[in-house]
Amino acid sequence: MKRIPNCSTPEQFEEWRTFASQQTPSYTSWFCTDCTPEFQLKHKKQGTCDHPYIKFKRIEGSLDGYVPADWLEQHKKIIKKLSNDYETRENEDYRSS
After folding, report:
1. Residue 63 is inside which H or E element, if any?
2. In this structure, are 41 and 19 located in the same domain?
3. pTM value?
4. Which residues constitute the domain of residue 21?
5. Euclidean distance between CA atoms 21 and 30, whole angstroms
6. 33 Cβ partners below 8 Å, 6+ apart?
7. How far apart are CA 56 and CA 89, in angstroms?
8. pLDDT tens digits along 3-58
9. Cβ of 3: how many Cβ atoms within 10 Å?
């Protein structure tokens, strides 16, 4: 089961997942990179923004969210650990089914 972001209702998240699954993005997209600066700011103020480091830029007329390279560089060890933990959980779930 996917974890629902704190800024979203289950219905909103499921609607986004359905829409996103029908798209052919030219890059990897996920819920928080499909955000908007206004929505992000609102949820930063409320303390419900899970990924406040997401930045936005205009690409071919569309406003796209992205994870800044400097953030990735600073958090490589954490990302690797989380990724390894996720893979371990996925493997355990697979073995138990």
Report:
1. strand 62-66
2. yes
3. 0.67
4. 1-66
5. 10
6. 54, 64, 65, 66, 67
7. 32
8. 889 999 999 999 988 888 887 665 556 888 889 999 999 999 999 999 999 999 99
9. 8
